[in-house]
Amino acid sequence: MLPIADGLGAGLVAFLGTALQRGVDLICDSIGFDKYLEGSDLVITGEGQIDYQTAYGKTVVGIARRAKAAGKPVIAICGELGQGYNEVYKYGIDTVMSILPRCMNRIEAMREARELVQDATERIIRLFCISHSQSKAIRR
Predict the structure, then answer these.
(1) What SS3 class is residue 73?
(2) Residues 68, 133: one domain?
(3) Are β-strands 2-3 and 20-21 bridged in parallel, bridged antiparallel, or unpaired?
(4) What is the mean pLDDT of each run of 10 residues along the chain (140 residues)?
(5) Looking at the structure, do residues 11 and 43 belong to the same domain, yes or no?
(6) If we measure between CA atoms, which residue out of 37, 134, 129, 131 comes closest to residue 92?
(7) HEC profile for 94-107?
(8) To the nearest 10°, the Cα dihedral for 102, 103, 108, 109?
(9) DSSP assignment, residue 112?
(10) What distance in Å separates the CA atoms of residue 90 and residue 92, rounded to the nearest whole number?
(11) 0.85 exceeded by pTM
């Protein structure tokens, strides 16, 4: 099996009779990703920009597909929400969150990426904890 990669993959299938495999699946299988899902309550994945193209084979959708098969909620973080970002909801991503807490240019965002991702992740965990504690209270 070969990971899917533009026209090269099609040529290898046509001339060498090989099979294609999504790159995200190849990586997930090699690291035992599904085993990590067993002990998780939430999956957080990310991409630089989430837009209508994200639904067409990007890593976050591959991660979401596997997480949904395991019954896990999925939140995707990104640097930018582009046009049609809400298309990803059809593919297993429950919600998306930009890492940007305020208006900033791309260079500034890349320079502060580590802190911005940490802050967005903390906000996600806080929301998840609130939701999780309320759902337990409702079940009582």
Answers:
(1) coil
(2) yes
(3) parallel
(4) 57 71 85 92 94 89 94 95 93 94 91 95 93 64
(5) no
(6) 37
(7) CEEEECCCCCCCHH
(8) 60
(9) T
(10) 6
(11) no
